[in-house]
Input
Amino acid sequence: MSRVKDVTTSRMQNYLDFRNDPLAFFMKMQNGGEVVSLRTGLQPSFIVNSPDFVREILVAKDASFKKGRTDKVLRRTIHNGLLTAEKHDHKRQKSYYQPIFYKERLNSYAKTIVEETKSLVTSLQDVEYCKLNDEMMQLTLAIIARVMFATNVEENKKQLADAVSDTIEQTAQTLFTPIIVPLAIPTKGNKIHKKAINKLEDMIYCILHDAKQHPDQYKMTMVGMLLDTQNDTGSAIDDEEIRDQMMTMLLAGHETSANLLTWIFYALNQNPDVEQKLYEEIKMIDLEQSPFELYSKLNYTQLVIKEALRMYPPAWLIYRESEEAVELLGETFKAGSTFMICSYAIHRNEKVFPEPEKFKPERFADKKGEDVPKFAYLPFGGGSRSCIGSKFAIMETTLILAILVKEYKFKVEQETVTPDPLVSLRIKEGLKVKVEKR
Ligand code: HEM
Output
C-alpha cells in the first residue's frame, strides 16, 4: 500500500485554503497521510508529515534535493550566501562559517547579549506600555550587529530593524504567490523591497570599508574572519561574497530569535504557573557570574524554550525540490517535485506530543524529551542544511529571557493573538504589553 496519499479536495480549493490560512491548511493536511500529494499536475507538490520521510529528504537523500522556490526568492536579497548556496558552494561556505560559532566565541558573544539586554532593561524603566515584538527585533538586531560585525547600531536601530522587516515581508509575499516578479520591475512591493535592500547594503559596505581600514577592531567578528579567509583558489573572498554572508546573518540571525522571544512572553502570560516556576529558577541565579555558566544552569528555562520552539517554531516551513527522480522509502517521486515540511503542524502531532495545544515545558524533561522520535521535532531543521546558529540562538534566548524575567513582568494587553506565518512565524499586529517592574 502506498505511503503517499492523494488529497481529496480540488487544486483550486487547496490553493485558496493555503492562501487564506497556511497554518490551518497544513494542520488539516496532517490527517491526510504520511505524505500528501496535492495533485498539482506537471509540478508535483507534496506535504510531508511523517518523520521518516523528513529524515529521508533532509538527511539520507539530501544530495538529490535543492531548496527550490525558497532559494529563488531569498536570492533576491541574499544573493549567494550560506542560506541560499547549493552543493559544493554550500559545503565550502559552511566550512568557513563553522568557527564563528565555536564555544570560545559563543562565550564572548554571551557578554554582548547580556550588555545589550541590560541596556533594554534600563530603557524600559519609565515605559508603561510597549510593542514587545518591536523591542525584541531591535534587541536581537543590535546583538547580531555587534557580535558579527562589531557595529553599534544604536542610532539607527529602528530604521535598520524596519528595513529587515520590510525585506522579510516582501520575501514572504513573493514566496507565497504563484509568479515571482523580477525585482527590476517597479511594482509597489518591489520598490519597498529595493529600498530596504539598499539601506541594509549601505550599512554592510560601510562596515566592510571600516573593517579593511581597522582590521584589529574586527578580528573577533565574522567580518574579520571572512576578510582573513581564502577561497578554493587561495585568493581572498571578494566583497560581494562577504556582503552576501552579512546579509544572510541579518536575515537569518535575528528575526527568528526575536519572534521566538515574543512567543515565549505570550506563552508565559497564558500559563502563569510556568511563568512562576521560571521566575523561581531565575531569581536564584546570580546574573553577574560568567554568562556562559549562567546559561548552562538554567534548566527549566531550557525546557520553556524547547516547548516554545515546538508550539511556535519560527522557521515554520521548510521547502525542498528534487533535482532528479528520487526514491524515498519505496516511493518514487519525479524530478522537480516540491516537498513542504511544516514543523508547526508536525510539532502538533498528538501521537508524539499529547495535548499538543497545551504549553507544557515538562514534556521535554528527563527521559520524556528523548522519547520524541527524531524529525518529529525539528525547530532547527536537520541534515547538512540545519541551522548553523542554533546554539547561539538558544544561548541568546536563555540570557535575554533570564535578564528580562528577573526585572519585569510583561502583561499582554490584547484579547487574542493570531500567528502570522511569513518567512518566520510572527504574531499578527505584534504583541502589546504592559510593562510591570517586579
Ligand atoms: C530561534 C532561532 C532560530 C531558528 C528557529 C532557526 C531555524 C533554522 C532552520 C529550520 C534552518 C534550516 C532551513 C532549511 O533547512 O531550509 C536554519 C538555517 C540557517 N540558520 Fe537558523 N534559526 C534560528 C536562528 C539563527 C541564528 C541566530 C543564526 C545566525 C546567527 C541563524 C543562521 C542560519 C543560517 C546561516 C542557516 C542556513 C544554514 C545552511 O543552509 O547550511 N539561524 N535556521
User: Anything to note?
Assistant: Residues 188-213 form the longest helix (26 residues). Residues 4 and 35 are 5 Å apart (CA to CA).
